[in-house]
## 1
Amino acid sequence: MEAIRSVVNTLSSPTIFFSLSVILFIAMFTFRKWVEPRYAALIVAGAVIFFAASMFDSDFRLIVTKPDNVPIAGMLFLVGFFSWVGLKQAFENDGRIAQGLGPAEKDETEQKVLVWPDLVYSEFICLIILSVVLLAWAILLQAPTEEPANLTRSPNPSKAPWYFLGLQEMLVYFDPWLAGVVFPSLIILGLMAIPYIDVNSRGNGYYTFRLSEFIYVKWLPNLGYKGGLPKFWLWREIWGMLLVIAYFMLPPPILARTAFRRFFEKMGFIRYNVMVFLLLFMIALPIKMYLRWAFNLKYIVAINEFFFNI
Amino acid sequence: MADKPTWPMGFIRETQIWKSVFRHGKPVDPRNRALAVISNVFLHLHPVRIRKSGLRMRFTWCMGGTTFFLFLVLTFTGLMLMFYYRPTVEYARADIVDLREQVAFGVMREIHRWGAHAMVITVWLHMLRVFLTGSYKPPREFNWTIGVMLLVLTLLLSFTGYLLPWDQLAIWAITVGSNMARATPLLGHEGPGASLLRLGDIPLVHAADDARFALIGGRFIGEMTLLRFYVLHCVGIPLVAAILMAVHFWRVRKDGGISGPL
C-alpha cells in the first residue's frame, strides 16, 4: 500500500503530472482506438477502481468528501464521459468523410420533425429527471456552512471557488497582474475571437476532429543572472524586455513563412496575427512552468518599482 | 381519426375559459401541433419544425436546455431565499443557518447552492459540445460571442453568491478572488503603471480608489461588500443575463436553427 501511495505521489508532482497530461492529451487524438466501447469501459472501470481505492487514504477521502469539492469529483467523470461521447462521433465521422460519405448526422438533417410533440416531450422528460437529481443531491448532501466570517483569522489554504482554481494556480508562475487580470481577460477575448479566427468553413454542425499541424515550442534560453546588476531598471531589465518583445514579434513573421504558411495565406494578415498572438500567450504558461521547474527562474522582466514583473 | 370528446378533458376543452387561453384544438394533427407552438409565448422560443438530427441526445447532450432550466430553478429558489435572508454582517450567516434548519431538509438553500455549481459545469459542457460540432462557425459567430458573455456572467453570479453565507469559506474565497483586482494594470494600486499616475506627490490610484475598491466597496471585505455583492447577485447580473439569454435564444432561431451538416 505504501509503495502504491508513493508511486501515485511521485506521478502527481506538478512536473511529472503536467508533462504526462500533455502527452496523454495528444495521445488521445493519435491512438483513437480508446473510443471503442470496450476500451472506454475498461478506462471507466480503471478510473472507478482507482478512485474507490484512493478513498482508503484518509487525506484523499477528507478532500473529496468536502461538500464543495464534490462538484469537482463529479466533473472529472462528466468531462471524461462527454469527451468520449463527442470524440467517438468525431472519429467515426472522420472515417466516414475519408471514405467519401457524409457525416452521420447528415442522414437526419434533411428530415424535419414537429417540435410538438417530439422536442417538447423530450424537454419535459429532461426537466423531470433533472428536478429529481437536484432534489436528491440537495437532500443527501448538505452545503457547507463554516464558522462565521473572521477577517483576522485566515484559513490555510485560502481558496478561491473551485472553478477559479486554475487561475489561482497560475499565480505560482506569474504575478497577479498577468495571472489574475491579463490572462483571464485574454481567455475571454480569445474565446470570443474563435469564430472570427477560424476560417475553415467545413466541420460545421457535426462532430469532427482532424489533427492538422503540431506546433513545436522553441525553448527560451535562460538569461537569468545574478549579481552586479545596473541600478536603473531600464538597463537592468533591457535584455529581459527585449526577449519578451522578441517572443511576441519574431515568431509571427517567421512562422508565416514556414510552418504556418498555409494559415497565413488562408486567414489574412489580421486574423493570422491575432491567432499567433493568442497562441503565444497560451504557450507562455507552460514555458514559464518548465522554466520554473528547470532553472528556478522567477521573472523574465522584474521591475518591482512599478509592480511590473513578467 | 375523429376524436370523441372524453370526460373531463373533452368537456374542459369546450369551455369558454379554456378556449380563451389556448387558441388551438387538441395537438394531434400537424396544424394544431404547429399552432400549439406558435400560439404560446413560451413554446414560441422553438420553431415549429426542427431537424431530426438536432433532436438526438448524443448530438446536443441537452446541455443548453439544462443550463437554462438550472437558471430558472436558481431564480425561483433565489427568490424564496430572498424572503428570509438579510444581507448584513449581523444577520447574514444566522439567516443561512436558519434557512437550513427551519426549512424541511433546508431544501431551498441546498438546491440553490448545488444548482449553482451544476450550472457552471453545464455551461462549460454546452460550450464543449458547440465547439466539438463546430457550431460556432458562420453564420453563428455572434451567438458564440454572446454565449461567452453568458459564461462570464454565470461565473460572476456564482462568485457574487459565494460571499452571501458570510462564513469563513465565503469571505476568504472572495478575499483571494478580489485581491487580483489590486494588480489591474493602471487601475489597481499594486498594478503595473499605477505608481506612474500621480500629480506631484499625490498618487491618483491608491488603495481607497482603485479597481479593488470599486469591486468590494471598501478597503477590506465588509458590510459594503456584502450589500454590493447581494444587489449584483440578485438584481444586476441576472437582469443582464436574462437580456443576453433572450438574444442568445432568438439568434439560435434567426441563424438557421440548431446546427447540422449541410
Note: Chain A has three domains: 31-107, 110-140, 176-309.
## 2
Amino acid sequence: MSAPSAGLVAHLLADARLPVAGHTQSATLEPALVAGLPADRIPDYVRLRLRTVTRVEAATAVVALSHQRSGRDLRPVVEAWQARTPSAAMRATARTQGKALLRLVARLWPESAAVHAVAALSAPPRPIVLAAAADAGGLSPVALAGLVGYDDVQTVISAALKLTPMDPVVAAQWVHHALPEVDTLAVAVATLTRPGGIPASGAPQIEAWAEAHAVTPRRLFSA
Amino acid sequence: MPDSPTRRTLRLGVCGPVGTGKSSLIAMLCRELADRLSLGVITNDIYTDEDARFLRSAGVLDPARIRAVETGACPHTAIRDDITANLMAVEDLEADFAPLDLVLVESGGDNLTATFSPALVDTQIFLIDVAGGGDVARKGGPGITRADLLVVNKTDLGPYVGVDPAQMVSDAGSVRDGRPVIALSAHDPASIAELVAWVIGRLAAHRDGSLHPADPGPMAPHSHGPSHEGHGDHDHDHALAADHVH
C-alpha cells in the first residue's frame, strides 16, 4: 500500500467526523456564553483564542514535530507547554483529547516511531500527539500549525451552533473569515524548533472560564 | 486499545427515552448485585451530572465507581457514532477498579431511536414505561424491537395511567421475534429477580464466549432472505452491493 499524500492526511485529521470525541468539546465557548459573551462576538472570541491559547498549542505542536524529526526528547516540549498552560482544567482537557487522538493514531500508524515515542509519554497532551500524527503523515510544520488553528476555530463554531443556534451558513462564514488569521498563526510559529521559543501567550479570562466550567454541575460540553 | 477477547468485564448498556427509569434501574441493579459482583457505572447526562449524582446519593455503590461523561448535546453520537469518550471512561474505570465484573453504561435520555454501538457495550437493555403510553411498544423502533432485553417499567402505575401492562408486554413481544421482555416494577420483587437473573445470564454468556454483541440498528429491519430476517448481528459487507435497496 502506498502512502497517502500529506494533503489528504491533513484533511483526515481536520475532519470533525474523526472519532476523537470532538463533539464533547466547545473550546471553552460554553462557559464564555454563560458568563455573558454575546453570540455576535463569537468571531472575536475565535480571534482571541488564535492569538493566545491556540497559539501556545500550535507552537507546541510545531516544536514537538521538530524534536521528533531530529530525534530529540519530547519531554522538554511537554514541560514548556505545561508552563505556558496555567489552567489545570485546560491541561486536563488537552491530555484527555491527547488520549483520544492517540487511540486513533496508534491504529492509523502502528509502525510509526513518532507515535511510539508519544505513546511512551505519561498522558501526552493533544498538540504533542498531533505532532506524531503529522510526522507519520508527512505534514509540514506550517500545515500542522494550520491544522491546530483550524480545528480550534471549527470546535468553537460548531459548539456555537449547539449553544446559540443560527443559520449554519453564517457559522461557516465565520470560519471562513477566520482562516486568514489561522494562516498568520501558522506562518508565525512554523519555524520554531526549541521549547523556549513557544510563546507564553495565555489568556487569563479564557483560563478563568475553563476553570469555572470544570466545576459547574450543569454543562453540555466537557470543556 | 483493542479489546482482549478474554476481557473479564461485561459492558451493559441501558438506554431508552427520558423519564422511563434508566437511573433507577441501574440503582436497582447495583443494590441487587453489589454484594456478589464488582461493579462500575458510566452515566451520559445531557445537561448536568444529575444522573451520576442521583446514583452516588443512592448509596448503592462507592461514588468513585460512578463517572459522568459529557456529550456536547450529542447523546446519540456519544453512544453510537463516536463512542471514544465513553470507551475511554469505561476502560479507565476497568483499569482503576480491576477486576470489574460489570460496567453499566447509562445513555443520555434521548428518544426511541437511540441504541448503543456494539463496539461500546456487549449487551443492552432498552427501557420504556407504561406511563409513556400503551402504544409505544406497538410503534416499535430499533431498541424496542431488537435490543437484547426490553424492559417495560413502572407496571404498578398501569391502573393510574389507563394502560394494561400485560397488553403492552404482549404488544412488545409481538414485534421482538422471540427476544425477551420483562415487565418491571420496583414494588414487585419477582420482576426484579427476573431482571437480575437476565443480567447474571448475560455475564455467564460473556464469560463462556457465547455472547456476541449485536447492533439493534438505526434502520427498520430489512430482509436478506428467509434465514436472516430480523437479525442485527450478521456481517453487513453485502450492504454495499449495488442491487441492495434499503
Note: Residues 189-208 of chain B form the longest helix (20 residues).
